[in-house]
UniProtKB/TrEMBL annotation:
Source organism (scientific name): Sphingomonas natans
Name listed for the protein in its UniProt record: Citrate synthase
KW Transmembrane helix (keyword) present: yes
Listed InterPro entries: Citrate_synth-like_lrg_a-sub, Citrate_synth-like_sm_a-sub, Citrate_synthase, Citrate_synthase_AS, Citrate_synthase_bac-typ, Citrate_synthase_sf, Citrate_synthase_typ-I
Cross-referenced Pfam families: Citrate_synt
Gene: gltA
Length: 401
């Protein structure tokens, strides 16, 4: 690792690195990835152990505070998050300004940004207490906001949170409860939902997290920064890939059509890519995809659902893993490949997939934002450029052009 700052100060030279493929933008103690070995650690703990043994509340605490909570700390954190699950009633009015058929990610970008107008007190980023309250508010309110986005698009009334339920259970009830009193949270679905949240909680300096840090580096308030992260996550090359992956699997339809799509993915004249395949950092396997692949089978089995999409996904994975093109380019299923199959089995429409990703990633975004704010080396993010435009020339009046 070369610290380029001294080199720059001494020589005036700088590096050209489109897409930041080899530039560390910060130091961080939160998440470690070894892409060649397929390792993902949060504060040192392997993702598969966290997904198997912990809860999203524990992982959120871990990301923010650096250590797993003891029982009292976990109870206290869960109590604090529960206390903040409600949103201001006026926010419901804000939702009603959106078109009924708006994409829920468009709604989320708007409402999360609007939180800064509702919670002015925690926009003072110089106050550690307010930073902590803003962080709790964001983690706590995301399930409520996400469920409201869903309810709004299907024309059903919003449901208030029930703080006797778990984080995942509460979200499921607010999303699927019709009427709320009769909705029973299915423990299988609740556990799968929590696992999905854990698997999406953080992933070091990906595009959306870098966006949150970049927005925050100017001193913008945390609600605005998380809204920026949501906007970035929406893209099909990032969080939108799980929606795109499931749409692709449905389009393929049956395993016999897979070779046609593999051929398209390999054809350089065709912009088509196998969605849910490939990763900037993982060049061996994505450990999150392995956990989700297992979970997909478990959830569908336990729910008694037989979905041909899962068969197509499994077959596609097997064919691609043996194909020289995918081997040479080190393309493996990523977290988005199987998550859509599970989310669809639970009952979410594809348009909600990225919303769920944003909900879970808020824990990581806010942990990264806090780390950045308290980093003594932190500066405003200001990438340089390699100018390739016109050289200096004189203005010509419009009549003479
Ligand atoms: N299907 C077919 N070919 C692919 C795929 C794919 N899914 N992904 C990469 N390639 C090829 C590229 O065409 C390129 O080929 P070339 O060297 O002949 O030009 C080579 O592999 C490298 O691809 P890049 O786009 O340069 O790799 P990068 O690291 O920039 O991109 C990305 C990673 C964006 C994830 C890419 O693999 C992709 O578009 N995958 C599909 C979308 C997807 O699943 N995104 C989810 C990512 S995980 C997440 O955000 C949570």
């Amino acid at each position: 690792v070369v610290d380029i700052r001294k080199f720059y100060a001494d020589t005036g030279a700088f590096t050209y690195d489109p897409g930041f493929t080899s530039t560390a933008s910060c130091e961080s103690k939160i998440t470690y990835i070894d892409g060649d070995a397929g390792i993902l650690l949060h504060r040192g703990y392997p993702i598969d152990q966290l997904a198997e043994k912990s809860s999203f509340m524990e992982v959120s605490y871990l990301l923010m505070n650096g250590e797993l909570p003891n029982k009292a700390e976990l109870d206290n954190f869960t109590y604090t998050i529960n206390r903040h699950t409600m949103v201001h009633e006026q926010l419901a009015t804000f939702y009603r300004g959106f078109r009924r058929d708006a994409h829920p990610m468009a709604v989320m970008t708007g409402v999360v940004g609007a939180l800064s107008a509702f919670y002015h007190d925690s926009t003072d980023i110089s106050d550690p207490d307010q930073r902590r309250i803003a962080s709790h508010r964001l983690i706590a309110k995301m399930p409520t906001l996400a469920a409201m986005a869903y309810k709004y698009t299907i024309g059903q009334p919003f449901l208030y949170p029930d703080n006797n339920l778990s984080y995942a259970g509460n979200f499921l009830r607010m999303t699927f409860g019709v009427p709320a009193e009769e909705y029973q949270v299915d423990p299988i679905i609740e556990s799968a939902m929590d696992k999905i949240f854990i698997l999406h909680a953080d992933h070091e300096q990906n595009a959306s997290t870098s966006t949150v840090r970049l927005a925050g580096s100017s001193g913008a308030n945390p609600f605005a920064c998380i809204a920026a992260g949501i906007a970035c996550l929406w893209g099909p090359a990032h969080g939108g890939a799980n929606e795109a992956a499931l749409n692709m699997l449905r389009e393929i339809g049956t395993p016999d059509r897979i070779p046609e799509y593999i051929a398209r993915a390999k054809n350089k004249d065709d912009p088509f890519r196998l969605m849910g395949f490939g990763h900037r950092v993982y060049k061996n396997f994505d450990p999150r995809a392995q956990v989700l692949s297992k979970a997909a089978t478990e959830v569908l089995d336990k729910l008694g659902i037989s979905d041909p999409v899962l068969d197509t996904a499994r077959e596609l994975e097997q064919i691609a893993l043996k194909d020289q093109y995918f081997i040479d380019k080190k393309l493996y299923p990523n977290v988005d490949f199987y998550s859509g199959v599970i989310l669809s089995a639970i009952g979410f429409p594809t348009s909600m997939f990225t919303v769920l990703f944003a909900l879970a990633r808020t824990a990581g975004w806010i942990a990264q934002w806090n780390e950045m704010i308290t980093d003594p080396d932190q500066k405003i993010g200001r990438p340089r450029q390699l100018y390739t435009g016109a050289t200096q020339r004189d203005y010509v009046s419009v009549e003479s052009r």
